[in-house]
Structure of Dienelactone hydrolase:
Amino acid sequence: MTDQTNAVPAWEQRFRAARVSLPEWAEDAPDRALYVSNATGTYEVYAWDRATGDHRQVTDRPNGTTEAELSPDGAWIWWFDDTDGDEFGVWRRQPFAGGPDHEAVPGVPAAYSAGLALGRDGTVVVGTSTDDEGTTLYLRRPDGGSPEVVYHHAEYGGVGDLSLDSALLAVDHTEHGDAMHSAIRVLDLADGSTVAELDEVTGCDEPRGVACLGFAPAVGDTRLLVAHQRRGRWEPMIWDVAAGTETELKLRDEQGREFPGDLSAQWRPDARALLIEHEYEARSELFSYDLAGGVLTRLDTPRGTVSGATARPDGTVEFLWSSAAEPSAVRSTSGEVVLRAPGPVPPGSVPVEDVWVEGPGGRVHALVQRPAGEGPFPTVFEIHGGPTYHDSDSFAAGPAAWLDHGFAVVRVNYRGSTGYGQAWTDALRERVGLIELEDIGAVRAWAVDSGLADPARLVLSGGSWGGYLTLLGLGVQPEEWTLGLAAVPVADYLTAYADEMEALKSLDRTLFGGDPDEVPERWHASSPLTYVEQVKAPVYISAGVNDPRCPIRQIENYVERLEALGKVHEVYRYDAGHGSLVVDERIKQLRLEIDFVRRHLDLG
């Protein structure tokens, strides 16, 4: 009898293989945990009783669910209920052991989520964002009365954290109008008054962001762990909001050198130590930091990427790890695999090579994977979204599928990417999109000159911001690309701005230095629609009809222009939002892309 698994291509097995996220555990009931998995073919929320080993599916919706939290006592699972991926909805909750779902905080209107904080005493803070109202944070006190507005502003913000006694609330906000560099305000929930403010943007020549990482998990402790950019990268410090003191943690590696990349931190459960993550040049590593002794200890993690970590009360650290060659699993510093998804482990893939290319703004880091055989190869430039994100040495089914089909894969951490310092991330402002394309173009030239890539078979591809850069690149660099694959892209930037969710409008105003009426020439220069007449390559576009981030109307505008100009193109529309949480749908989309590329490159 034929093995059914072996009959399925390796690339499809990688998509169908079940995955799990890093489990979140309840602060006062650490044996109660929840995670997200695609075990049923759709990403949904699962409860895990670690004491009994029982796993239970919590949500079951046609388009999936990923946003959920546990109450501190582990009694309730909260999950965000939107409509078909539109990200607009309300919080619901159900008992940990199972039972009916109920609207968690009646009286809080449906909106985009701007965070959630659940206190040990029953205090709840729900963050909402709408196009008309901006950001509103609602407080429901432990007595269960009607929610009251504790914070409101037209600019984007969100829930930071509640102190352990629920007396203080930290709010991340961008009231100064710079959505790339937030500030923090701490409120006294007894009367809503401001206890402290940390703003390194207003009145500063060189804006630096700060971000809330969490209050110390100790009763009466007013220390807030904060990330800051005072030395041109993200680093942790401890801000005692009651005392008004700041303690910067100038961490050094084993050789006494400053860490070159971004550092993030979280409290260990005893509040006497921190778990530190160092992210640099597409990889990450973990450390433990003893606050009293100032001792930094490296934790044993393999070379690759940590996609999340959590310090457990027993002193161990659990982390979700993978590399480009090896699929992910939840591991522990105790040496064991804590949680692996049910079913077969997906096939591995090809390790990445690090390539550095001189670009107009400095050295550009690219991650390269080669298929079997001798080059030059047909090559897919897979461009990441964000834009403040980065490609990493981590397992991804999409690039692995192209490798299986004989393509080289190149991923570029262009200016705007994280993990290379603040200057690199902030460099894309004003000449939005065009800056990134300069870096992608420099890596393209290297790929051709080095013999890796066949210049007649170059595919520019990406989703979200990567889809935007794909359409922009096809118009700005029409001679450089053979084909384009753009998933959920920005295509007509002015219409996108009119229709997108408010949080992204705020980011766009920051990137461009004003709205379309204030700096129209910048918006025009950065919109793919401006260059549609110059497009020569056949282009494939996929779009979610409920997408609040890259809305469908602006994509239709671009497609209509392609049609009017007689440009070769295909469009696939699907009933979801900014991407799909359904495995079959993801496979269908990639199969359509592969078919499009093979036909137009005459690969049979």
